[in-house]
Design brief:
Elements (H helix, E strand, L loop, with lengths): L25 E12 L2 E12 L3 E5 L6 H8 L7 E6 L2 E2 L5 H8 L2 E4 L13 H11 L5 H14 L16 H13 L5 E5 L7 H18 L2 E6 L2 H7 L2 E6 L2 E7 H6 L4 H8 L19
Parallel strand pairs: 3-8, 3-9, 6-7, 7-8
Antiparallel strand pairs: 1-2, 1-4, 4-5, 9-10
Helix pairs in contact: 3-4, 3-5, 4-5, 5-6
Length: 287
Amino acid sequence: MSEHRSRAPEPDQRPEVGPPAREDHVLLAADGLVMDFPGTRAVDEVSLTVRSGTTFGLVGESGCGKSTLTSLLLGLLRPTAGTVRFRGTELTRLRGRELRQQRRHMQVVLQDPVGSLNRRKSVAQIIGLPLAVHGAGDVTARRRRVDELLELVGLPTSYASRRPTELSGGQCQRVSIARAIALHPDLVVLDEAVSAIDVATQAQILNLLRSLQAELGLTYLFVSHDLAVVRYMAPEIAVMHRGRIIEQAPRDELFAHPREEYTRTLIDAIPRVPARAAAPESREATS
C-alpha cells in the first residue's frame, strides 16, 4: 500500500496514557551503540532510556538508521560497540536460550499489516503461536486467550477462523497487535506500525494502542518517519539523523524550542490542518 501522511489529533487533546513512570524503573537502556557495516556506520554512538509504562518516540527519515537501531535494541543484531540493557540484564552478553527468554518479554508490530502475517494460517493460529511456542497453557486455555485478545483489539471472536487474505489492512494490524501482547510483554516495539494504512484507520489503531497501554500498562518504543504521529503517541521524542540521535526532549519542549535545523524541518513538514480529536474507539470497531 502507498504511504499516507497522518493528521493525528494534537497531543493535548487527549489525556496522557499509561501509569506515570517511576524514576528508578528503567526498562530499556542503550549506551554508546555503534553498528558498522562494510563501508558505512549505520548507528553512531546512540544512547537512550525507555522507562516502564511510557511511550518513547523515535523519529527520522527512511535510511537514518532507525531499523538498525531497533534490531540492536531487540538483540537481533550484535553491536560493533556499546551495550543494551533490558529489565536489568545486558542483552549484548546473552546467547541462545538466555536471549530467547528475554525476547519473550519484548514484542514487535511491523509496518506491513498483511505481509507480516502468514497467509496460510488462521487468525487463531497466528495469535496463538507465541502461546504455543512458550508453552502457555493447554489447547483450551490458549483458545480462550485468543478470544480474549481478539476482544481486546476490537475484533469479533468469529474472526478466529479467518485468514489474513480475508481481512482489511487495519484488521490485519489488529491481529498483529493481539499477537504482540499475547504473552504480556514488558515492551512492544511499534516499527512504522501505522504507515502502510489509510489515515482514518491510522487514527483508530493509534487510539487502540493508547487504550491498551492504559489498560495493560504497556511500554512502547514507537518508531516512525512521521513526526505528527509520534507527537500524538509519545511524551518523550528522540530525533535520529544519519545514524545519530541529534536531539531528544519532552514533546512540548521539542515542538516549542527545537534546537536542530533538521528537527525544525520535520516540524515544518507537518500539514497545517485543523485536527479533530477522535474519542477512544469502541472495541466493536473492525476496520
